[in-house]
Design a protein that fits this description.
54% of the residues lie in helices and 17% in strands. By secondary structure, it is an alpha/beta fold. The longest helix has 69 residues, at 214-282.
Length: 618
C-alpha cells in the first residue's frame, strides 16, 4: 500500500526546475571544459609545432650550437607547457601517429605528450651528419598536459563562475514566473481543503488570484458555481426534509383516521345492507304480483352480491392489517369437498356446465382451518363458473403424507375463456379487471382472487396459475398441514386478568386471548377503565389498535398517577402499517407509563410467548 503524501503542483514545478537547472549547469560546465580545453590544446600543439620548425632550421645550420642552446633554454623558461626538448640522431624515419585524431584523447586523459620533428642536415653542419639534405635525427619536445590543464582552468575559472551565476539567475527568474500560477493553484487548494474539512460551511472563503491566468480563472469560477449549486441543493434538501417530516406526521394521523374511516364505513354499509336484506326477507311473496316479485328478486340478487363484495372487502382489509387469525381443528377433506360440490352443483348445472371431481386419496382426518380452505375453494369455483361459458369444471384433490406433516393439493380447472399470460401476475391485485371497460361482459369487483392469495399466504399455502387464452385456466392450491395437535396450549393464559380498551371495534385479539384462557374485560369508555383499575387488580391493560397514541398516553398517565402498591402492566398494540412510524409515538407513550409497544399478533403461540415474556420480566 502506497502511504506517500500527495505531491502538490508547486512542489512538482520547483523540483522540476531545480533538477533541470542543476543538470543544465553540469552539462554546460562539462561541455565547455571539454570543448575549450581541447581547442586550447590544439592551439598549444600548433604553437609548439611552429617553435619546433624554427629549432629544426637552426639545428640544421652549421655552427649554430650556441644559438640552439640559447633558444632551448629560452623556450624552457618562457613556455611553461614544455617539459623537455631533446635532440637525437637516427637515420631511420619515425612514423608519427595522426595527431589530429588523438588531440581530444591526449587533452583529456594524458599527463605528457611527446612530439618528434625531423632534422635535415647539410655538409657544413658540425652537429648533424655531413651528408647534404639527409635525415640526421629528430627534435623531441615533450608537453606537460597536466600543467596545461591546470593553467587553463585557473585562467577560465572566473568566466565559468560568471556564466554559471548568470544561468542560475536566469533559472530563478523562470522559476519565479512559473511560481505565479502555482501560488494561485495553492490558493484554490486552500479553499478546497477548507471546504473538505468543514462540510457544513455555508460561505465559500475568498480565493485570491493575483495573476488572473485564464485557465485558473475558469477553474475558480467553476468551483464557485459548484459550491453555490451545492448550497442551493442543500437548502432544497433541508426544505424537502422538513416537508417530508410534516408529511410523515400527517401520515401517522391519516393512517389512524383511515383505519377508523374504513371501520366506520364498512360497519355502516354492512348495517344498512343487513337492514335491506332483512326487509326483503319480511316481504310476503304471496301478496306480491308478478311484476313486484320480479322487482324484489332483482333487489334481493343485487343486495346479496353487494353483501358478498362488502364481506370480501372487509376480509381483505382485515388480512392486510393482520386482524385475521386461523382456527385450527380437525376436519375431513372428503367431507369438505363433498359440501363444496353440493353447494355449487345446482348453479353449475343450471348454466349448462359439467362438474367433475377427481379424489386421489382415502378418507383421512387433517388439522387446519377448514372454514378458510372452503372459502378459498368456493371463490375459485365461483370464478371458474363465471368465466366458463361452456364445457366443464374439474376439481382434483391429492394428499401426500410425510413423517410429521401432510401436503394437500387441490386444483380447480375450467374450460373457460382463459387469461392472457401478461395478466397472470395482476389478477391477484385488488380491484384489477382484465377488461376494465364499462361494457365488460363479466361482472365482478376484482376482490375474490386477492382474498384467495392473502388467505393462502396466511395459512402458509401457495397458489399457482396455469392458463391459456381461449382454452381454460387451472388454479392449484398447495396447503402444508401438521400432524401435531395443539389443543394443549389453549389454556396457557388461564388465570391472566386483562382489561381491553378499544375505540371502535374490539377486533380479533380479544377472541385470541380468550381462546388462550385469559379473563378479558372489554371497555370502550376511558372512565370505566379508570374505575375498573382502581376497583380490582388486573395483570394487564391493553390498548387496542384503533386507539390514538395521544389518547392512550393520557389514560396511561391517569392510571400511573393513581397507582399506590400494585402496578398494572400497560401494553399498546399498533397495526402493522404503523410500524414505520413507531419512533414518532413510542417515546411519548413510554414516558406516559406504557410498558410495551408491539405490533398486534393473532397467532396463538406467538401471542402466548410474548405475554409470558412480559409477565416474567415484570
Amino acid at each position: 500500500m502506497n502511504n506517500r503524501p500527495h505531491q502538490t503542483l508547486p512542489t512538482l514545478i520547483w523540483h522540476s526546475i531545480m533538477q533541470t537547472m542543476v543538470l543544465a549547469v553540469l552539462a554546460g560546465l562539462l561541455v565547455s571544459f571539454i570543448y575549450g580545453f581541447v581547442h586550447y590544446y590544439k592551439d598549444t600543439r600548433q604553437h609548439i609545432q611552429d617553435l619546433a620548425t624554427l629549432l629544426t632550421i637552426s639545428a640544421s645550420i652549421a655552427d649554430s650550437t650556441d644559438i640552439v642552446d640559447e633558444q632551448i633554454h629560452f623556450l624552457l623558461e618562457k613556455e611553461q607547457g614544455i617539459e623537455s626538448i631533446l635532440f637525437y640522431t637516427t637515420s631511420q624515419p619515425i612514423v608519427e601517429a595522426n595527431q589530429l585524431r588523438d588531440d581530444w584523447k591526449n587533452a583529456l586523459f594524458a599527463n605528457t605528450v611527446s612530439f618528434n620533428y625531423p632534422v635535415v642536415g647539410d655538409p657544413t653542419n658540425k652537429i648533424i651528419s655531413p651528408k647534404e639534405d639527409a635525415l640526421v635525427g629528430y627534435l623531441n619536445i615533450t608537453l606537460d598536459v597536466a600543467t596545461l590543464r591546470e593553467n587553463w582552468i585557473k585562467k577560465n575559472l572566473l568566466l565559468w563562475l560568471m556564466t554559471t551565476l548568470l544561468a542560475i539567475i536566469w533559472a530563478l527568474f523562470i522559476l519565479r514566473k512559473l511560481n505565479w500560477p502555482s501560488k494561485d493553484i495553492a490558493n484554490l487548494t486552500a479553499a478546497c481543503d477548507m471546504v473538505i474539512k468543514n462540510p457544513d460551511i455555508e460561505q465559500l472563503p475568498l480565493i485570491q488570484q493575483r495573476f488572473e491566468f485564464q485557465e485558473l480563472v475558469q477553474i475558480k469560477q467553476a468551483f464557485i458555481t459548484l459550491f453555490d449549486r451545492l448550497q442551493i441543493a442543500k437548502q432544497d434538501y433541508q426544505a424537502l426534509a422538513a416537508f417530508e417530516q410534516q408529511l410523515h406526521h400527517k401520515d401517522v394521523s391519516l393512517d389512524v383516521q383511515l383505519h377508523n374511516f374504513q371501520s366506520m364505513i364498512t360497519h355502516e354499509l354492512k348495517t344498512s345492507l343487513n337492514a335491506i336484506v332483512g326487509g326483503l326477507q319480511l316481504l310476503d311473496d304471496e301478496k306480491l304480483n308478478h311484476e313486484q316479485r320480479d322487482a324484489v328478486d332483482i333487489i334481493r340478487e343485487g343486495s346479496e352480491k353487494l353483501v358478498l363484495t362488502l364481506d370480501q372487502i372487509i376480509q381483505l382489509n382485515q388480512i392486510q392489517k393482520g386482524q385475521i387469525s386461523l382456527h385450527v381443528h380437525e376436519f375431513n377433506p372428503l367431507q369438505l369437498i363433498a359440501d363444496l360440490l353440493a353447494e355449487f352443483e345446482p348453479a353449475i348445472k343450471k348454466k349448462g356446465l359439467t362438474l367433475i371431481s377427481h379424489i386421489h386419496h382415502n378418507d383421512y382426518i387433517l388439522e387446519g382451518d377448514a372454514e378458510r380452505i372452503q372459502q378459498i375453494l368456493a371463490i375459485l369455483v365461483s370464478n371458474a363458473m363465471k368465466f366458463t361459458p361452456a364445457g366443464q369444471i374439474t376439481i382434483t384433490s391429492q394428499l401426500t403424507h410425510f413423517d410429521n406433516s401432510n401436503r394437500w393439493q387441490i386444483s380447480v380447472k375450467d374450460t373457460g375463456i382463459g387469461i392472457d399470460s401478461s395478466f397472470i401476475e395482476d389478477i391477484f391485485n385488488p380491484f384489477f379487471q382484465v377488461d376494465s371497460s364499462q361494457t365488460r361482459q363479466y361482472e365482478g369487483s376484482g376482490i375474490g382472487l386477492p382474498v384467495v392469495k392473502q388467505m393462502a399466504q396466511l395459512m402458509g399455502a401457495s397458489i399457482e396459475v396455469d392458463s391459456t387464452l381461449g382454452i381454460g385456466t387451472n388454479f392449484t392450491v398447495t396447503i402444508p398441514m401438521s400432524n401435531q395437535h395443539h389443543s394443549q396450549q389453549q389454556q396457557h393464559l388461564r388465570g391472566l386478568k386483562i382489561i381491553y380498551y378499544y375505540y371502535h371495534e374490539k377486533g380479533l385479539l380479544v377472541d385470541q386471548l380468550q381462546h388462550l384462557g385469559a379473563d378479558v374485560a372489554c371497555y370502550q369508555h376511558e372512565q370505566l377503565v379508570i374505575d375498573e383499575v382502581h376497583a380490582k387488580q388486573f395483570d394487564m391493560l391493553m390498548f387496542a389498535e384503533d386507539v390514538f397514541p395521544r389518547k392512550a398516553a393520557s389514560l396511561a398517565s391517569h392510571i400511573r398517577a393513581a397507582e399506590t402498591e400494585y402496578r398494572t402492566l400497560l401494553v399498546f398494540w399498533y397495526p402493522q402499517q404503523q410500524a414505520k412510524y413507531l419512533a414518532d409515538f413510542e417515546f411519548g407513550l413510554k414516558a406516559a407509563g406504557i410498558d410495551y409497544c408491539e405490533v398486534a399478533k393473532y397467532e396463538d403461540k406467538a401471542l402466548n410467548d410474548l405475554l409470558k415474556s412480559w409477565l416474567t420480566w415484570s
